[in-house]
Batch of 2 targets.
Target 1
Amino acid sequence: MSIRITIDGNEIITQDGATLVDVAAENGIYIPTLCHLKGKPCLGTCRICSVRVNGNVMAACTVPVSDGLEVEVDEPEVSDMRKALVEFLFVEGNHNCPSCEKSGRCDLQALGCELGMMVSRFPYRFPVRIRDHAAKRIWLERDRCIFCQRCVQFIRDRETSRKIFSIKDRGTHASIEIDIELADKMPPEQIREAAELCPVGCIIEKGVGYNDPIGRRKYEIKSIRERALERKRK
Amino acid sequence: MHTEVQTILEQYHSDKTRLIDILWDVQQKYGFIPGEAIMALSEGLNMSCNDIHETISFYHFFHARPSGKHKIYLADSVIARMNGYDEIREALEQACGCTFGAVDESGTFGLYDTNCIGLSDQEPAMMVDEVVFTNLTPKKASDVIAQLKQGRDANQIANPDGNGRRDVAYVDTLVKGNIHNQGPVFFKADRDFKALLEKCLEMLPDEVIETLTVSSIRGRGGAGFPTGLKWRLGREAEGDEKYVICNADEGEPGTFKDRVLLTRSPGDVLLGMIIAAYAIGSHNGIIYLRTEYRYLKEYLEQQIQGFYDQGLLGEQILGKAFDFDIRIQMGAGAYVCGDETALIESCEGKRGTPRVKPPYPIQQGYLGMPTCVNNVETFAAVSRIIEEGAEWFRTMGTNHSSGTRLLSVSGDCQHPGIYEIEWGISLNEVLQMVGARNPMAAQVSGPSGECVSVEKDGERVFCYSDLSCNGSLMVFNESRDLLDIVKNFMRFFVDESCGICVPCRAGNIDLLRKIERVIAGRACQQDLDEGVRWGKLVRNTSRCGLGAASPKPILTTLEKFPEIYQHKLVQPHGALLPAFDMDAALQGHELAYKALVQEEME
């Protein structure tokens, strides 16, 4: 069913029940995302797509649109909230962009640039997180995990559909875990899929490092905003 | 071990949605959940070992390593701390020969802290294995340990008369009821459940729902969703099966009224569930009981059995074409499971992580089917509404808050315990009723609610549009250190955040650090301003009610008692913030330098 909503005052005609974050992108309005993957079940973990919907702050990846919705994206207070959430992630783990294999193709780094983050307003925690390189072809760099749950939900053992990646403990003690036996069974293309799915440099394919020179890396060629709009525009 | 685990699995038909029950049985057998058992479960359930660890490590009461033959959990709540928690802690450490968070050398005792265990009217209190000990003194606590050392089990010590666990006398031996007034709705004696259900089944399901809609009852868990509307949606929802779940995961610090309802009036609750099942068209019900109320389990099972024996549960209830069963699902220790979607995840054997909404449980809940989740008190009240009629209920309370509700009162008052109040009563009236002594502040709805000033807010009334209370009321007198209480509440939220979303996982820690900074006398005005802004951020962007509420201890005390914060602030000198600790920073450099030198030498 065709419905009308407004985003930042612009009237948009779309389909009832479509996901707000996709509707916005299809209409050229960028809402930053970190955990969202179009066409996959909603994870709703990063909250970076927070916007105002009829006055209330909601994560746009969790909102099915309905007629008459009034959405504010480019509003100072909620824009600052999105930026603050990115800043939280930078202090919660240990993110050292210059030495990271994912630099230039990392979603978190790209969002930091996109949202104009110069420094985090929150105190740095410098947590001690032990990296795990026991798997034959995967390097788990826990310092960089942002607990988006993409790998947990979407990468499964192809034979048994068991979880390869999982979360241990809860809250601030949580850590990302990898099942070595199952990881060692992963075919090369699935390893690549997992590494690409990871929005940060936590899941790294061993033997593959800085494969693109500075200046020609993913988000240097085209920004995260341009890519999001290009991918989703009708 | 493999065959033993196999036997447990068979009991649950190797159904992974029963993982919580399976893990409880394994832990019961071995004292903890050994790696070898996890491997056997992994094969039997077709889950990776890490996947099973996801569930184990989420819950406070599951242990993946040896944790003591006797596991002792001392409730660390604001109320316990007002009543001698520190002395009990010390006495336990001395008696057990180990510190908290550890196991003694012989492996006999494991000492653990735990959040509110629903006994705020009789604290300090501790759980030992499957029982609880209340109104502790250091002597009483040491005495329990001494008896355990002599080989008696916790059950024998707590229940010396040997009451059967299915008997209410057993529960009464362990904990007090402390009901202080008899209101119109709850705790009615000698109810004829059979006659009442007959009356209900003569109505059409739509008429039952209409009765609730007219009564204007709203959910008693805290959110206040209209019960009639929820059930209407449940009736209209499409699904091969529908479920009714009673939320008995009473985790909000300071509340214990559900414990008393389940003890004194379990039939009211069961009947309310049966009425719900009839109204929405469900055949299966679950009571999700928090581990902290483990001692109620056999008693409740007996009550459920009594309903089966009377033909009020089971197949063809009272001769009608209406089947309904109820089972008890034990929790395993997670406050966030009070959220209905987290509770459903937990019922399915998973981590208690709140789901993304929509869809709402009433559309897609337990096992993806329409699920009606209501609070213990809501079900009990429903059974009375069907008995006395919608008008009877609606004439009580206020326009938008009909009927009465139960308050669990604790803290600085003469008679902590359970009170039934009509909505519309003022805070001052309640404080007088409970014998509050020089009250300064009242914490309405626990940490996730509001801290109000008795002086400024005494005339405010309990109702959904003003003091919308979820049942917890803590009274603090003038001698109490509110900042310390706020710190305790913030630590509670940090402990209990599931960590699925960024703002709640990361933000609550920063808020806790802010309040610690204020208490340490190292905060300036900037810290308070940031506390408010960050609090608003966490409240607005978090995924579930926990994060939406967690900054409230700071925000509401800052609003009502700004002077206690101002009093603690310091003026910054020069460019450095008062929070910057020069000595610590230099010491940090020293340590880092030494570590680097050492690394180089190796």
Note: The domain at 70-158 of chain B is CATH 3.40.30.10 (Glutaredoxin).
Target 2
Amino acid sequence: MHSKVTNHADAAIQFNLDEPRVDWHDKTLWFIREKRDLASHAIPEWEQLREYASQIKNNVLSNLSQYLQEFEKNAIANGVIVHWAADAAEHNQIVHEILKKHKVDRMVKSKSMLTEECGLNEHLEHNGIEVIDTDLGERIVQLAKEPPSHIVLPCIHWKKEEIGELFHEHLGTDKGASDPKYLTAAAREHLRETFLTRRVALTGVNFAVAETGEFVVSTNEGNADMGAHLADVHIACMGIEKIIPKQEHLSVFLRLLARSATGQPITTYSSHFKKPQPHQEMHLVLVDNGRSVHLGKDDFRNSLKCIRCAACMNTCPVYRRSGGHSYHNAVAGPIGSILTPNFDMRANKDLPFASTLCGSCSNVCPVKIDIHDQLYKWRQVLMKEGLGPTAKNASMKMMGWVLSKPALYDLSGKAARLVLKYSPFVVSNKMNPWYKQREMPAPPKESFKEWYKKNRSN
Amino acid sequence: MRVALFIPCYVDQFYPNVAIATLELLEKHGCEVTYPLKQTCCGQPMANSGYEHEAEGCSQLFAENFAGYDYIVCPSGSCTLHIKHHLHTEKNAPEEAHIRKTVYELCEFMVDVLKVDDIKASFPHKVGMHQSCHGQRGLNLSQMSELNAEPFSKPGSLLAMVKDVELIKLDRIDECCGFGGTFCVAEEAVSAKMGKDRVADHVRHEAEYITGADMSCLMHMEGILKRQNSKTKIIHIAEILNSD
Amino acid sequence: MSSRDNILKEVLKNQPADRALPVIDIPVTTTHEEWVEALKTRLEILHVAVREVADYAALKHLLQQEAIPQDRTVTTIAELSDVSTLIEAVKEDAHSLEDVDLAIIPAHFGVAENGAMWVTESLIQYRVLPFITQQLAIVVNRKDIVYNMHQAYQRIAGTTQYDFGVFIAGPSKTADIEQSLVLGAHGPKGMTLYLLG
């Protein structure tokens, strides 16, 4: 949870001040969208897989209470210590207690969007515990003291020269060096030392299997495994919606996940954690944090199907041109825009409007979340709640009224054309956001209705 | 067949030639076309802004104006989609269901209902096809690049019947132009950037014209092209299909 | 009431009416030989060198020629104990593996569609071994190649239990810096697959 809440449109203005950088950001993410297209189009049964995944997730949401209990029972039988957290604060407290119990004041952490959502790092740091993020991208943004801008590619908004500078300052790499190979090698050395000296490792969870009590963590770097296997204590944190019923369902999700995310057929590592190592403690924290309430909303529950692949972000023409931070939440982009209002409607009321409703997000979604329809529905909910700006509320009311009265409409249309035709300076000024980068349409001499009356109507 | 012509408000006011081309085109293909004179707007600008509840009057007026026809045809995918998905009034009269079922975007009407296989039109120019999202992803006018499915295009198949038209290839075949209704002013920075990028793809591939089935997207791109003093122009697909 | 009970109560109250699970049916029409070819193509894309060997004798010969001259080589394959240090059980702290240059491990089977090799704890003794080593060699029987992940999980369900299992599809990698692919993010910088038989 990031305290500095801004408005998407304002943040997007800032982002767009540097147009070449916007182009670079857009192209980088579009390239990933293209890789996703290639990978998914190479699988003839792709659309069938999406349908299976969607149905499995629908089944999960409709039986979540039973699956959670089944998972808990099996995980405990496997020797895992299971915790339940009602909200972010309880989650953070549980993790902190485990660290205190083991008298540990530093730990490694692999990628977990849930801990971003809960603000775990801030909480632990506030309590004197050092957390080192080990995913390279996350380490970069952590060194830069900023949140990830993308759930799969945390530092997609950073250029290699800037990362070079950052590493020069923090890791002592050569000044001016920006070769990704060189920089990655430096991070490898720095983090290897960290892995070898930390007794507690925290990881996220991609899928938790009710039937077996195991959980799966997917990474390309191997950082979750390096951390978890070398530590005395492994803490895994997951939202309650990450459950899947059976082990065989992993086949569907692992086929979809990486192809949707980066165009890879699978991540380098898909690690199945079932039991702790003999000398080890394995904790699993199940977190609600608003999800159970969210589950009760007919129009919106389906966003809980999300498997955090970020395909909707990569394809979103708005995300690509406004950057992840403009969404002021741990999960950005289209999926973030429909998830976050569930947790705080007022703070996130701008997000459902940060979209053209183009629908590309829903089409790439591997679990078939109706993302753009939910964006539309959130708009209705937010405005009905009276969260729209007063001027907009008034103008929409007026518009609705005029447009329901044909005679008034004819008059106002004519007026609009007259204004456009005879006093372009009235409308065509900097106060009009349309005119800032676009010309107004040239007003015709008559409307179609006027033409029709003359030429067709008897 | 009795066809009611549904002309989006901004087309009525700013692009009468598009409406005229639509009318003439339908007449050429044997439809008995009526333009209900009391029509105003479908209510989409309000609904997409979150004010469905303020569009009730619009919806009722629409239902009154368009009751009793075999088909309703509109030269805009976006407005058609709104009626198809969101036309619901408190009265919930039976004609509303009929309207939702019989409202068609112009290209899909020509392909699916009229089954047009010959168009007497000629347009000797290089043309870029803009896929407007609501028509494409909402009404399924063309296959969507995200899906692993057979390609097709209803507007494309109509353009293919036009003599001498040369369709250019684009780098991104169906990316949104950034118009997005009130998005175009509420999120001006991103909207304009998306528009500039979309236009650049067409210009880079030497389009003389950008065409499409939605005038709103074209209006947005026209605004950008004009600001850039570009030679590339916009033209609604009805105008190409109706050209001599 | 505990958080557990509260959460479960809320979830039960709010979960919608039951939706059925699908029956997953993805038929595979290609042949085993085609799967092996598909695997080789896939591994090439994943920067994995593929070596085909007839038997362990040939494997040992090849290992000595190409791979073994590393400072510290370990294996969990008994047949390779005369060319590499055999790890038969967990005897020391896993941290002692930090200077392993090459680990040679077996896999239960490999998946053609994505190049992933299924490895469980009993095959590697130390969970961290395939991650901490600088170079990784995996040995898999040619007959143990399946086509897709559905077959993979059918096979996992039909075999013995595991405490920890992992699909490994190539060397450790990252593209976090400007989408440039770099091998060896944290784990192995390179991987070789030995197809046996």
Note: Chain C touches chain A through 70 residues (CB under 8 Å).
